Amino acid sequence: MTDAALPSLSQTPSRSRAKGPWSLGKTALGLAGLAIFLLLWEAAPGFGLISPLLLPPPSSLPGAFWRDLQSGAWHEAMFASLSHYLLGLALGSGLGVGLGVWAGVSPQFEAATSYIVRILRPIPGLAWVPFAIIWFGVSTGGATFIVAVGVFWINFFAAVAAVQAVDRDLIEVADAFGHRSIRAKLAKIILPAAAPGILGGLRTGLGQAWMAVVAAELFGVPGLGQRMMQASSLLATEIVVVYMLTIAALYGLCDYLFVLWRDALLKWKP
Fold this sequence. Notes:
The protein has a single domain, classed as MetI-like (MetI-like fold). It has 10 helices and no strands. It has helices spanning 15-46, 61-71, 73-105, 107-120, 129-136, 140-164, 168-176, 182-217, 224-233, 237-265. α2 packs across α10 (237-265), α3 packs parallel to α6 and α3 (73-105) packs antiparallel against α8 (182-217).
């Protein structure tokens, strides 16, 4: 093939220029879809298709949020849930990643725990609520325990899979360069190579932890979940939706910050 048959650099659109218009188009489509969704939501109770008690219109939400904000209830519930969330997330993720890495590098440990994992893994987090109440009472400790259980298995299996997927040739190279101890291999080869998979599990756990927080608080622990139950018992469905959106916003913020941290941590990757 001659050079004339090859497109010149000036004829080839850059990646950023080719991607830019489509990126703007996707944003516009997303905003248009959101606007249509809100209009339909507003119209359903407005035209009597459904009772506002069952589905409050979006226009009622700012006022409900402002009243709860002024009363201080929103701040109290949010900070209570954040404490359960962060403590449970740290505990469950730390144990999950730690034990997952151990099982990934040690076939003996993986074999010794395989039947324990098969027994405990199918048990949903909500099934542990009675024990959480018995062991910790209706308290922050009980909610933290439920959140930790909810994220533990996600991080455990993500870490096991990521470590076991590390190229064995890389470990042989580490041996050739004198890094023969398991500690050296973990620091130099295994953890850097497995980091994307482990971080993927951590990111999945961010969302799972919020679901576990709400489930734990529905049983009386102070927080967003308890506030939602109180509002629903009074048919204050606009308050329920406000707290649902609060959870969505908090998750979005946590995910955004995590992605920034992940990208900074993995900036060495091509």
